[in-house]
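dumping these here so i dont lose them again. two proteins, back to back, each one seq then structure tokens. dont judge the mess
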Amino acid sequence: MGADRFYAYGAAAGLLGDLLLGDPRRGHPVAAFGRAAGAVERVLWRDHRGWGALHTGVCAGGAVALGALAERAVRRSPAASVALTAAATWAVVGGTSLAREARVIGHALAAGDVAAARERLPHLCGRDPQALDTHGIARAVVESVAENTSDAVVGALVWGAVGGVPALLGFRAVNTLDAMVGHKSPRFRRYGWASARLDDVAGWPGARLTAVLAAAAGPDPRGALHAWKADARRHPSPNAGPVEASFAGALGVRLGGTLSYGGRVEHRPVLNGGTGRAVRVTDIDRAVRLSRRVGLLALGVTVAGRRLVKGRGK
């Protein structure tokens, strides 16, 4: 059970580091990976799914291999193993930066400075800010907090519990590749297909755990479960649907509807439309607090699950 304890200590230390320090202003490992992936893309890009799959394999496989080599190098030292897991967890988890960006926008909206909120919104999500009023920006922020709780916190903890440092780095690599090339622009519709599909697969368990924990930790568990059951399948994303629906029900708000990405208008289904109200600016802070609780619960659940599974395997 020693290795499981070392992982638990490291994951807890990494999450605590994120809570206390957030992401570095410069030199973030994920940003370095993004630059490397961009360089690989410039060499490999063809308007073809096969070349996109090769790009995904090279970049994500490289991240997994790096994690495996690092884990192998420290396997004889408990202190180094804990430190490596802590560093990897801190590098891939982004809960504090998510909360910080959401609250900056919320404070701007509360002060009536819609222009500042619009300027800041691209730091959090890819919506077209000029098309949004105060309530539209607030809804976009709450949806982004919900989705990124899964992508930037819970999903990473799930895969870390399953496969240690290599899986932690691999999950963040896949998620980053999806953000870079997984969208349906003319350049990446085919090239980014593999990254988008792999991200759907990798994000599946974390999204369901996030939805469960949002129901458990939110002010309206029954509402969260009802919205998840009724509306999640109507969302175009197999992973954002359960997460956003559960957050909507837990907070008692309506999410979804018409939105714009890069000049492309999408009409998404309304989540929790039967009983939820329109999102208010004050709901941003409520969503951030719920996200924090979900992240802490996810640490406990994933560490306990790892110890239980490993214990049965002995």
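---- next one ----
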Amino acid sequence: MAQTTPIPPGPATEAPQAQLPAPRSTRFGGLRRIWAAIREARGVPRFMLWTGALISALFVIMAVFGPLIAPYDFDTYQSGGTRFPKQGAPDGDHWFGTTVQSLDVLSRTIYGARTALEVMVLAVVFSLIIGVLLGLLSGYFGGWLDRVLVLVMDALFAFPYLLLAIVAGFVFAGIAGGSIITAALSITVVYIPQYFRVVRASALSAREATFVEAARAMGAKPSVVIRKYLFGNVIQSVPVITTMNAADAIATLAGLGFLGLGIQPTDAAEWGYDLSRAIDDVNAGMWWTCLYPGLAMVIAILGFTLLGEGLNDVLNPTMRRRRISKVLLPPHTRRRTVITPEGTAAK
């Protein structure tokens, strides 16, 4: 009887195994889609997007590094024991001139950007958290909770935004005083209904999707469904609203400061307050006290507005235009007959 000797496995005898590609992580899938859409942007949307991003980045840099850029503090009126000139014109010592309180306009303008950035970030973050959370809960659960939240948000949305911010400012000023937190909370009340309405509408359509029904059928809790399945599908339209609200928050803060309902002048520099104090200076021919704060406010609002409009044109599928490459067909050639060695003709 013949015996068979087993051959030890080796590189020559092992069967080749197919190398499966590693699964692609979906944790940052939404960010990848946004970045891919930004890279595909062309024409006017691309110009608006990158111009707004550049202006916004310069505004943020000036605000963050304000203490290093500004020659003086926002409430400094003297240096070396010598008081600054009152309503002095721009010169070598004070490039943007001085105010009626002998304050340096350049320092006030730079610190005003710092104040606007702090209020803008706090207001957007507060309204983003509250509005998105309430919109998800209202859109997913529905019922009496949805009816109550929709009624409250529609009532808030019916008020003019500046009037609503003024009323909220009075309420919060009695609790926390005229501080940066108070101004941020006043603006937060204005923006919560916007996030709520957008997120609720997206959640109402996403909760009927097949993957959400499958997750519920497998016994997933509502918190898991909202966190893992709904949130990623409704958050894609939020960045556009955020950038637009950032520009509007700067204008709303300036309006509150112009009316004397914003931040106390002893706490921080604020562009709206400086503009309100500069009205009499303009009538007297002293233009520098209002020109530079107003110009800084206009440029900051313009930057975030261009950024928001550019993102809307790039991320909105109904407005986005993809780049179409021209297809070049090969030239037409005449068919040739080749005689093979076997004597057959091949075409």
